[in-house]
User: Fold this.
Amino acid sequence: MPLPTPATPSVAAPPLTSLVVDGTLEGAYSIDFSRPLTSEAGGLPAFAATARAVGRGSLMAVQVQPDAPPRAGALAVLGNWTDPGLLAPLACGPATGRDGRAEWFMICAAPPGAPLCGSGLGPLTAWSEADVIACVLRPAALALTALAARGLTHRAIRPDNIFRAASGGAAVLGCAWAAPPALHQPAVCEPPYVAMCQPAGRGDGSMADDVYALGVVLLTLILGRVPMAGLSDAAVIERKLELGCFQALTAGARLPSLTADLLGGMLADDPQQRPPPSLLADPLAARSRRVAMRPHRRAAQPLLVEGAIVWNTRSLAFALARHSAAGARLLRLGVVDHWLRRGLGDTALAARLEDAARPRDARAAPMPEPVTAMRAIALLDPLAPLCWDGMMLWPDGLGPALAASPDAGAGDATKLADLVAAEAAGGWADMRPDLCDAAALRANARSQRAMLRDRSWTGGWARLRYALNPLLACRSPLVAGHAVARIGELLPALEAVASQARQDRAVPAGRELAGFVAARRLGAAERLLAAMTEATPADEAALIQLRLLAPLQAELASGPLPHLAGWLAALAAPRLDGWRNRTRRSDKLRLLQSAAPGGQLAEVLAILDNEPERQEDADAYLAAKAAVAAIDAQLADLDSGLLSRAAAARQLGQEAAGALALAALAVCAIAVAAG
Amino acid sequence: MARAASRKRPRAALPWVQGLLCGVAAVAAGPTALLAAALLAPSAVMAMSGAEDAKPVARCMMLAGLAAAVFPLAALWSGGHTIDLSVSLLDDGGSLLTAWVAQAAGWLLVELLPVLIGAAQALQAKAQARALRAARTQLEEEWGIAPAAQPADALAEDRSTTAS
Assistant:
């Protein structure tokens, strides 16, 4: 049975319900910043909170860190959670913090008591096996079973994030939703293939990882001490890879037989061998599911990789992942092949490694070093995560990793950008197709690469970061301090900015804000923002933003935005210069000035963006030009007709005089004839 | 060339034909010819002067003179149509003066009417141009169209309008 494939985080954000109110969240919860909770949120800052409507006081507000967004998928699923074995989220959103800046908080039920262990709680005393099973294993297994039924993992099971009332009773799993999965997990509580990843890149993982972490908690309680304490993370991982997790963690300690049997399965190296949580709810049944722990083949001679001594393929893969440049050199020189053949005696693996590290077409360019190392590591240890240029992460941890990394072009961001540009996740999946959904990972990698390569404002680094982190707060300097993580929070933040800012400065949106909006509001927004670049004139950019924000205001019923409307109207006013008719133009300007204080963006937009009227104006302008041309032609005719008019007047005068004389002659003749 | 010669031949023969006809008329109707020649002498002089526009002017003078000569000629023909009567009518002086004054009036009329008509036409053209320029100015202001280069007479007209 293949390992469940870590999926790309869903881009669907929870419903838009929260508003920023002083010290409150969603208007329904009140946060008491004078009562900080030091150990109730597993290391995150937290404060006591109350539900205003019901007066429920046993709540806590966990503060979300700016570069560690909450788990959007879990928030969307856990809305009506009722299981008492887990601190599920009740609400989340921005609230004004102690320093007057908006911060994101997550409201959870407060723990029933202190954590099982943690700083300031004194030395941990060993628990009896019966207590561990009854108070920790069983309730945690039931909570995990319920989570698994909803397709979720906990990923924050550690001794300081499991709570129990002082009076005893069942333990409760702590809050795990205010930060990316496993972000605060110590290396000892995670399987080595997760612990070796950078904290933000561990991904949602699988229920087997939660079972492993629960096994470490059980072992800690039984031993009365944290196993492998005092070792560095790297040393913990190397030891687990070298000895196997169970042996490394127990270190030969004497364990009760039931616990030893259970931990043998829960701490198995292979995730597929760990029992599901539903089975752990019945420990006796779980005990019967024994795991055959086969020691890994150990080489006769160790291999040195940049100072690291490796004895088996798992350790070799970890060493190559940590020292990618040196590892690539060893691969290129054939040292690894040689060691596999001679040291380990695995010629088949050596042959496959040789094939994988070289391009099939001899005339093709050699593979880049990170690709070579990635493919080799995936062959040497198929359970290992994606390793790229010294960086390790699971593909579904890419979003939080992007959120945790600085802006593009700095530090790990460059490596992450290269990873996405090379579609490394697709290549990695192809090397271990039995352990993941390679087609889905390839498709994700392709779409992420296309998004990153998109040079417009709706693509690039910012768009990718927000697309993969549905609740990451916008990092645009414009809305800094407003904790804008969802599109519904954007308009109030922009209104607040507009009320403080001088309105003669540049247009509100920049590339960062455009990437945020495009990621949060697909479709029309993407099409509109695609037309924007740094070279877009301010008036046109303001008009595009009006087109973007006006429907949003109507959709969210966010009330009047007079300052924002005034800001955008002032910036877009030069668009009226395009109207040809002076009277109509001045009328429009008057209308614009009178509509802006009303704060309805749609009204402002209707004045500026009325295409039928504009077309009518353009047609009338053409007609006016034609009329002017006709007048000019008539004036030219009048000027050029002076001589011809004089000649015509002379001829006409002479003929008229002749006619008069003739008439006189006729009159005289008639008079004579009449006698 | 032969065709051109055939065209010129009737024009060259015309004075001779006219002279012949006049001779015949003088012999056949001597008193009338004498009286008419005397009364219409200014028109004849104008017709033969070769001046520019001599023919239309002479035609108008001739018609006006004929209008004045109708009464002496009627008197001649009713009085017996004699040379003596013709001479006595000329000798009277009134008929001669009336005919010559009538021809002078005809000349004045044919010279004055073109001037008056030309002036009326010029006034009409200026009024039309003024209306057109006003319409253009209105369109320029309403639609932001570039103004046309004004001709000198229009500028002068504008100045005179402003001064008045």
About this structure: Confidence is low (pLDDT under 50) at residues 1-22 of chain A.
